[in-house]
User: Fold this.
Amino acid sequence: MAEGYRNTTQRTLILAEVQAAERHLTAGEIFERVRRRDPKIAYGTVYRSLHLLAERGLIQELTFADQASRFDKRVDRHDHVHCTACGLLLDVDVPVALIARHVAEEQSGFAVESHHTLFAGTCPACRVRGAARDGRRGES
Assistant:
């Protein structure tokens, strides 16, 4: 691990929960899972540890304007799709997104160190629910 990083039992537990998760969890969801294994852990400890783990490159923090951050076990370069209706967040690998990095560098003069593409829309389940609601409205 990097210099100045002290791995504690609590950090190990928090990292394990993020890595075991089948989806991108919020700090609150991770806290609830960790608390089942360590009832004395404080929310602040989980929150600070998540940010430290992300800073050290062990997990990835995904931030969305006015929503809670989500934490991703994948630290390799990849992109996401986000359902604006239910909040579902999934990993996607979009090779064309790499071209966007080069275009951004050429147009801005920046030396781009990283990038993340987020595709926002409506997931299949929410589209089905929306269609069902629209169908019920038409029955009146």
